[in-house]
Design a protein that fits this description.
Layout lengths: L3 E8 L4 H4 L5 E3 L11 E9 L2 E10 L11 E6 L10 E11 L7 H17 L3 H8 L23
Antiparallel strand pairs: 1-2, 1-6, 2-5, 3-4, 3-6, 4-5
């Protein structure tokens, strides 16, 4: 099968992520997102034919600036470009956790770092190796790759 893919135009959000060094690409949400489970996901982001690893949150931001409607916010690792009004693709690769209401900004930041570490360290080479290889530990072997890895576009 394929991963759930969202193709959407990036819009301005409330820019809270930017204030904590965690900027996000925001999407306006409509009813087509209703079938998705709210929470945090590992994502593959495609912008101008380049692929990036990231994490995304789908939910109501219960900890800060709670909203009535769902919002979709994606933090793209190693990316610092203005993409407002640009159409991008975001594929949901792995579900990390449910959305949580945090008691403090510190607890929120600690969890974001855990989510980021999970996304960068988990072995997603079978799907988008050109991104994740740079996040792997230097001593990690590639013995878990498929024998015919070229069929997956890995090498």
């Amino acid at each position: 099968g394929r991963f759930y893919k969202i193709t959407w135009k990036v819009v301005h959000g409330n820019q809270v992520g930017r204030t904590i060094n965690f900027p996000t690409a925001n999407f306006s949400i409509n009813s087509s997102f209703a079938k998705l489970h709210p929470g945090v996901y590992v994502v593959r982001v495609s912008i101008d034919d380049k692929k990036y690893l990231g994490i995304a949150n789908l939910g109501t931001n219960p900890s800060f600036n709670k909203v009535d409607n769902m919002v979709f916010e994606t933090h793209i690792f190693d990316f610092n470009q203005d993409i407002y009004d640009k159409i991008i693709d975001v594929e949901l690769i792995d579900f990390i956790r449910d959305e949580i209401k945090f008691s403090s900004k510190e607890a929120f930041l600690k969890q974001i770092l855990k989510d980021t570490e999970y996304a960068k360290m988990k072995d997603f080479t079978w799907y988008f190796s050109e991104i994740v290889i740079k996040y792997m530990w230097p001593m990690q072997s590639f013995s878990n790759l498929p024998t015919n890895s070229s069929a997956y576009g890995i090498f």
